[in-house]
Amino acid sequence: MSSLRARKRSLITPGAASSNVKFLKCKCILENYSPLDLLPPPPLTTPRHESGAALYFNPMLTNGVVHANVFGVRDWVTPHKMALLVLLSELGRAGAQLGLLERRRLNRLLLPLLQGPDMALSRLRKAIEECCPHLAGSVHIRLKLMAEGELKDMEQFFDDLSDSFSGTEPEVHKTSVVGLFLRHMILAYNKLSFSQVYKLYTALQQYFQKDEKKDGADENDMELTNPEELDGKMEKEELDGPLREEEIACSGPLSQKQAEYFLSQQASLLKNDETKALAPASLQKELNNLLKFNPDFAEAHYLSYLNSLRVQDVFSSTHSLLHYFDRLILTGAESKSNGDEGYGRSLRYAALNLAALHCRFGHYQQAELALQEAIRIAQESNDHVCLQHCLSWLYILEQKIFDSCVLLEHSVNKSLHFGLPYLASLGIQSLVQQRAFAGKAANKLMDALKDSDLLHWKHSLSELIDISIAQKTAIWRLYGRSTMALQQAQTLLSMNSLEAVNVGVQQNNTESFAVVLCHLAELHAEQGYFAAASEILKHLKERFPPNSQHAQLWMLFDQKIQFERAMNDGRYHVADSLVAGITALNSIEGVYRKAIVLKAQNQMSEAHKLLQKLLIHCQKIKNTEMVISVLLSIAELYWRSSCHTIALPVLLQALALAREYSLQYLASETLLNLAFSQLILGIPEQALNILHMAIEPVLAHGAVLDKGCAMFLVAKCQVASAASYTPQKKIEALESAILNLNEAKTYFAKVDCKEQLRDVLYFQARLFHTLGKTQERNKCAMLFRQLHQELPAHGVPLINAFK
């Protein structure tokens, strides 16, 4: 019970049932949550009530009406379970006749059959046939004799079951899984009245006859179907599979054991592999069915809460969460296990969970009220653990108003003092995130994360290890070190989870992996590997379907990659159509890209108004990365409007911000823009000096398009500087510029940037003409003409565009 109470307390940790985390790549990750929001839903286990008797349901009490009945057993006999009893009996009879491989297959089959809900006889037969065809035939014959015989045959069958435990070396041990199942069934059968025994026998006959009718219908279909169609039908049935447990729905009232198994299975799948769990609508239907027969089943209400969170249903999730804690108090589970503290414990954790739920949906005022209530009750009860979780959530709510790390530092110290490594680690990672946004050095942040990792490995906190690596990936992306980010992403993807999951369940279907895969897709797209990026996004779509809680991540990245490709290809109308989708997922990104499209379409005044509004908003919310990007776009608008001197203060402001917040890549990009400004103002020598200082980080970590633009700019500066050189030195400078243009052309071709390719070809043709290389000039001129006819000309001078 102590481990169960610990799991119940884990329900209230910050962000329970939520894993929305604000990673550091702020212009491509969700904005509204911190790493403290990342705690997963606990493994949903059903407590065994200490009161002895609990409510169990027998569907055979009254015709058409199901009544609650207090049984001393946790199960009852159904035709499906009788078929399982026949299977166990035949398995014992077969003995040494079964091969080792067949016995292993049957042993693996038995556990899900014993724990799972009832299924049709045809499906059960097919499952047995895949393991041992001979045994499937014996089970079918035995059931047929019993169903077509008399009632005394069923009575004799249950009498013979007790023989399995007799003898010096019994076939089944009483305490084994199979032994417990047999004893439960024998006890449940012995408690049935005569009328109930008769109803069970009638149900067995109907169960068998339904299977016989289905077999007859299948035989008629086989006669009317050609062999090719039959093969296709059989393949489809094989794909449906007999043992896909997530597809087994509750067809009627479940026993206590079946309900526990169903709930724990679905909760585990929601945490580890949401794609294999039942669809939200189907799962809610089954939960409603469970609650119809037992409205006080608290764990069913909690799973309903998790299911509602999947579809962002705030009303249903709140309703289910309140019912969960109400049922805990009504059943007396908490009060009996924790004394008089039970009721207060449920109340304060209910208030804290409610605060977490409101914070997840952005209802900060309601969250603050619920948090105050939780703090008040926890202080009255002197519950330090609950107060620590309240403190963590208080930090999350406070940071929506102002940036303060005092609460967080206090929370980390107290969590370590009270032995809460999970909470302490999340606090450390939140501090690292806050310091990263404040521009602290990367080496200090990595040292702090290393200390956090020691806690993770010491306490085997698998999920926090994943979060830490994803956090490192985001930090390197923020600081512009794409190579290091790629290394961290590969590290996380190559790791195996420390958590035990069922065979066939995809591990690590958490937001950490979604974030890392999204970064990986963007990194590949930036380097021109669009096919690889598409494969990664395809994998993301399969791993996180559109209705899953992390689908918004890959949706945003997918839209952004498509937008960049359309802009590179000069298809501005396509890019404009993608803006709406980006805005729906991230409003700041959407507005920024709308301004980029307007700028590309030469709608300067509209783009400038939009960028100014976005700049004010980003400065207000302290989104420094986006502020710098907006300033660079505003500077480009001034160039295009021939206001070159006005652009310089804007660029210097962006450079100061980039250096203050240690955003190295953005600082390098700003320097390239400054070099371009100096080129326009007629000082190409100074521009070349700046380029030599700034180009190295771009070539080492930059996107292919940025590399091409940088090399193109170097060539322009070399040509402009060569005007004052001696003839021999001028020829050398022009030839060097041609080599740089060839490199730029390679980069632009890799990302299919036709407009930039056209400009490079034009520039090369002019240089070849100056050098008297007619053949090369004509080749470049021909390629230029082809692209010029394909692309629209906007009438903007070539020199007035850096990118």
Automatic annotation (TrEMBL):
Keywords associated with the record: Cell cycle, Cell division, Cytoplasm, Cytoskeleton, Mitosis, Nucleus, Phosphoprotein, Repeat, TPR repeat, Ubl conjugation pathway
A single cellular component GO annotation: spindle
Residue ranges occupied by any Anaphase-promoting complex subunit 5 N-terminal domain in the UniProt entry: 77-214
GO terms for biological process, alphabetical: anaphase-promoting complex-dependent catabolic process; cell division; positive regulation of mitotic metaphase/anaphase transition; protein K11-linked ubiquitination
Predominant place of localization: cytoplasm
Pathway the protein takes part in: Protein modification; protein ubiquitination
Locations listed in the record: Cytoplasm, Cytoskeleton, Spindle; Nucleus
Annotated ranges, domain Anaphase-promoting complex subunit: 301-400
Keyword Cell division: yes
Superkingdom of the source species: Eukaryota
Main function: Component of the anaphase promoting complex/cyclosome (APC/C), a cell cycle-regulated E3 ubiquitin ligase that controls progression through mitosis and the G1 phase of the cell cycle. The APC/C complex acts by mediating ubiquitination and subsequent degradation of target proteins: it mainly mediates the formation of 'Lys-11'-linked polyubiquitin chains and, to a lower extent, the formation of 'Lys-48'- and 'Lys-63'-linked polyubiquitin chains. The APC/C complex catalyzes assembly of branched 'Lys-11'-/'Lys-48'-linked branched ubiquitin chains on target proteins.
Family as reported in the entry's similarity comment: Belongs to the APC5 family.
PANTHER family referenced in this protein's UniProt entry, alphabetically: ANAPHASE-PROMOTING COMPLEX SUBUNIT 5
UniProt-recorded name of the protein: Anaphase-promoting complex subunit 5
Originating organism: Malurus cyaneus samueli
